[in-house]
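Our working data are protein records whose layout never changes between entries. Instead of coordinates, the fold is spelled out as a row of discrete tokens. Here is such a record, shown just as it appears in the course material:
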Amino acid sequence: MVFADVHLARLLERTEAEAGVSFVEARAQAFPESEAAWVDIAGTYAMFDGPLSPITQTFGLSLFEPFRDRDLDRLEAFFAEHGAQPSHEVCPLADSSTMATLADRGYRPMEFTSVMYLPFREWLPGPDGRSVTVRLAGENERELWAQTATAGWRDLAGPETLMVDLMRVGAARGGAVNFVAEIDGKPVAAAGMDIHGSVALLAGASTIPEARRRGAQTALLESRLRYAKQAGCNLAMMCAAVGSSSQRNAERNGFRIAYTRVKWFALGLGLLA
């Protein structure tokens, strides 16, 4: 059995943090003027990818080392130096004082995420023969992947210019494995995957609105799981909005909820110097 305990939480949180680091490093390499950067403070990874980027946040707050106010001071200083408001993804298995401390310092819980996992020894692949074809996107198809992914988010996410920028960097990041789903030879969906050690992080899946409910997401999920298993991974993870269709799709394919994570924001609370 793989139990949903603090050991699993540390493994999952570090996997997602490492994926964030690879994104920030790809941004810094491609656009040095962005000042994209990250830092490890007491086991907490803090990332800056621009003041509006969803990558700009922390992972692992008070999960790996004892919680100290001075560490939070240093984290807030990192964001202030880059002109960004801090936000923290907090696992419920973190130090028990974390939530109260964040509230006392002016943060507010604003977002809830189901963090899910699937041990590969429990996974049973579905049948082949779907009308959806899934393949790896080549290095010369990064723009195709980015545009397809952006089209899938256009009615659900923020400004298109921000989304396509995020997708382009995501396609170029180190360790990224990108997949494209096609129907009748036309790209209709895209998804990404990061492998860190023995864990595969499945993320960034989207389908263009006119092709939804035709099995593209299921096909992308199974293709990524097959790839990760063949690559030697023993665990897969996914994150989704609580109660969302993405969560239900993951659970139908064997994923279990490890915990519900809370994102704490400091927007407009005067934490910038």
About this structure: Residues 6-115+260-265 form one domain. The chain has seven helices and eleven strands. The chain has a mean pLDDT of 91. The helical segments are 6-30, 69-81, 98-104, 142-153, 160-172, 216-230, 245-252.
